[in-house]
Design goal:
By secondary structure, the chain is α+β, with helices and mostly antiparallel strands. Helices cover about 40% and strands about 20% of the residues. The chain has 16 helices and 13 strands. The strands form three sheets. A five-stranded mixed sheet has the order 5-6-1-7-8, sandwiched between helices. Strand 5 and strand 6 form a beta hairpin.
């Protein structure tokens, strides 16, 4: 008789940015750390467990964080270092497990189904954890369960630098006493709605009839009902650095107009960065392509720290363009491509932007989501004559 049990583990690098900073400077070990911008108008990107005890959390205004924990050490974020260690750990996991999904720069799912018959999943995960620690020097927590949902939730119980296993058949009983806020997919609005109904634990959530959940929250309600009962059939999505998004434009007339070429570059880059943030992805590689009037095609790429920031990506695409472009040669086509994509919700450069800048970018994305990708754009990316027309209207 075949055993159809799945074995899925979720791994999460503990306080990733903080851990990297402590790896670079051991004197920071055990001290309250905040990673983010240096001004009090900036926001918190990451914080250590020592600061969390005072109520500090990520995305909090730096000014408030320092009021809650005035003795905290503030460090400017270093995405070069974080991206380096993310890639290092990715390579270790990918070279060790049969199937891996990179959920973000510091999170991974691995499918160990079948490993239980030959090696033992528990033993395998202990050895993988030790291997990651040895190769990278970073602490990592994991949980092993029957599906992605349970392993993800249980990893929080394993932190810091720990491990947890939820046996098959115990999924529902494990979730039952937990607060509904622990359930992935329940945001602030849904949480408030459910609590107004008196639903505060996942056990109570699991007992609500599916038709009622559907009436209340639509398709998401049906999904939450299934998850509350510990059911999650979602597969591991194999990790591949080849995933990419791109945009190309072939001009009606070949041109050497630098203002026009750069405006097209900016327009395409803005469009792609919005798509990244909409899909909650980050890119780790930028490519710019040019095709000249004689059909010679050249391209240049740059591996960069993971980001979805307009400011960062506009700068990188411009750098690549200036390295590629040969003056006085007519250009027929220009293209931009982002690859090495990973899941992540870093919408802006949290190490540089102020709270006001964060709100501005979020407002611009909200307008694009509602009115279309062309609703908000930089003036320089507008076609000739369009800026004058818009200003005059």
């Amino acid at each position: 008789m075949l055993d159809n049990k799945r074995y899925v583990a979720h791994l999460d690098l503990d306080t990733f940015f903080v851990s990297v900073e402590r790896l670079k400077n051991s004197e920071l070990e055990g001290r309250p750390l905040i990673v983010g911008g240096m001004s009090d108008r900036a926001v918190v990107s990451a914080c250590s467990y020592e600061t969390r005890r005072f109520g500090v959390h990520s995305a909090m205004p730096m000014k408030l964080a320092l009021r809650l924990c005035p003795h905290a050490i503030v460090l400017r974020g270093d995405m070069d270092s974080y991206s380096y260690y993310s890639r290092l750990v990715t390579d270790v996991v990918r070279d060790t497990v049969p199937l891996m999904e990179k959920a973000s720069v510091d999170e991974f799912y691995v499918d160990l189904t079948g490993v239980d018959r030959f090696f033992g999943c528990s033993k395998f995960m202990v050895e993988l954890k030790n291997k990651i620690k040895k190769e990278s020097g970073l602490p990592i927590s994991y949980a092993l369960a029957s599906n992605k949902l349970i392993s993800k939730v249980a990893t929080d119980d394993a932190k810091p630098d720990g491990m947890r296993e939820i046996a098959h058949g115990l999924e529902k009983s494990y979730l039952a006493p937990l607060r509904i806020q622990r359930m992935p997919g329940i945001g602030e609005k849904t949480s408030t709605l459910l609590q107004q109904m008196g639903v505060r634990t996942i056990k109570l959530l699991s007992e609500i009839p599916v038709p009622m959940m559907q009436n209340l929250l639509g398709k998401n309600g049906v999904e939450l009902s299934r998850k509350a009962n510990g059911i999650d059939p979602s597969p591991i999505i194999p990790y591949s650095e080849q995933k990419s998004i791109g945009s190309e434009e072939t001009f009606m007339q070949d041109t050497i107009d630098m203002v026009f070429l750069q405006s097209e570059l900016i327009r395409m880059t803005e469009k792609l960065t919005f798509q990244l943030r909409k899909q909650q992805r980050l890119t780790g590689c930028v490519t710019v392509k040019l095709r000249y009037a004689n059909f010679d095609t050249v391209s240049k790429q740059m591996v960069i720290p993971y980001t979805a920031s307009d400011a960062v990506l506009l700068k990188k695409t411009k750098e690549l363009f200036l390295k590629l472009y040969e003056k006085r040669i007519l250009v027929r086509l220009i293209g931009v491509r982002f690859s090495h994509l990973v899941q992540g919700s870093q919408q802006i450069n949290l190490f540089e932007d102020t709270e006001e800048a964060v709100r501005l970018y979020q407002a611009m994305d909200a307008m694009r989501a509602r009115y279309g990708e062309e609703a908000v754009k930089r003036a320089i990316s507008l076609p000739k004559g369009e800026l004058k027309k818009r200003v005059g209207s």
